[in-house]
Design a protein that fits this description.
The protein is α+β, with helices and mostly antiparallel strands. It has 5 helices and 7 strands. It folds into 2 domains: 127 residues, Translation Initiation Factor IF3 (2-Layer Sandwich), CATH 3.30.110.170; 107 residues, Protein of unknown function (DUF541), domain 2 (Alpha-Beta Plaits, 2-Layer Sandwich). Helix 1 runs antiparallel to helix 4.
Length: 246
């Protein structure tokens, strides 16, 4: 036997997950005694190992005057980019982040000896982002550091096909909404009808840097690349679904 009171939901929204079996966007759900609905909000998530890494590499070089600092910076700059591209990274995946030629700040010079201060009057700072596969992140960082990238280490993890993961999370959330709606309809003594409308909101776990390190080259044999593992990325979707009740 159906309850006397109707559960009514009104919604105007756009479907964001194309794979979901929803009605056309911007459809209005009519409210009336003959059009009873059940509205559900459900959240679900998908956890996926990152397959893309954005590695931040850079250097700082000094000189007793601007021409000397610039020459040292130019040598390092070109050596680092050559080392990265020689490892198989396409040139268009290496993007300049920032670069500057400037006097060394006075507060930094105060921490130096007289000899060091004389050799560090000017500085050249430059950095890049290198987009590569997650499995190649450690190798890219190692090549850059060995070439002189002494201001390197931050890595951001992401997904190559984030849309597919978002659609999967939305699908899971919609399935959860249907299960909840079915349970509610059973408790109310009514039959759950077709899905009338749905919207979703996808949230991806914030990308967190692994570390930021200042690597220095020494006379010792080159060490092995750092042990770097990709992060897992959690993508969650919240679905608002409206079902008919019969």
């Amino acid at each position: 036997m159906r309850p006397n009171s109707s559960l009514i939901a009104v919604s105007l929204a756009y479907l964001l997950a194309a794979s979901l079996p929803l009605v056309a966007a911007a459809q209005t759900i009519q409210v009336g005694k003959d059009n009873r609905t059940l509205a559900i909000t459900a959240t679900d998530s998908v956890t996926t190992m990152a397959d893309v890494a954005t590695v931040h590499v850079g250097f700082i070089a000094y000189g007793p005057d601007q021409p000397a600092a610039y020459a040292a910076g130019s040598t390092l700059s070109n050596a680092i980019v050559r080392a990265i591209t020689a490892s198989g990274i396409p040139a268009d995946q290496v993007e300049s982040e920032n670069q500057a030629v400037s006097p060394v700040p006075e507060y930094e010079q105060q921490q130096l000896s007289a000899t060091e201060r004389a050799q560090r009057q000017f500085q050249v700072v430059q950095s890049w982002t290198v987009r590569t596969t997650a499995d190649s992140a450690a190798q890219v960082l190692d090549r850059a550091v060995q070439a002189g990238a002494n201001q390197s280490g931050q890595i951001e993890w992401s997904l190559k096909d984030a849309n597919a993961v978002q659609a999967e999370a939305a699908g899971h959330a919609l399935a959860a909404a249907r299960r909840q709606a079915t349970a509610m309809a059973t408790a109310l003594g009514v039959h759950l009808g077709p899905l009338l409308y749905a919207t979703n909101q996808v949230e991806e776990q914030p990308v967190r840097p692994v570390f930021a390190a200042k690597a220095r080259l020494g006379a010792a044999p080159a060490p092995l690349p750092l042990a770097i593992n990709p992060r897992r990325i959690n993508t969650s979707a919240t679905v608002y679904a409206v079902f008919a009740i019969e």
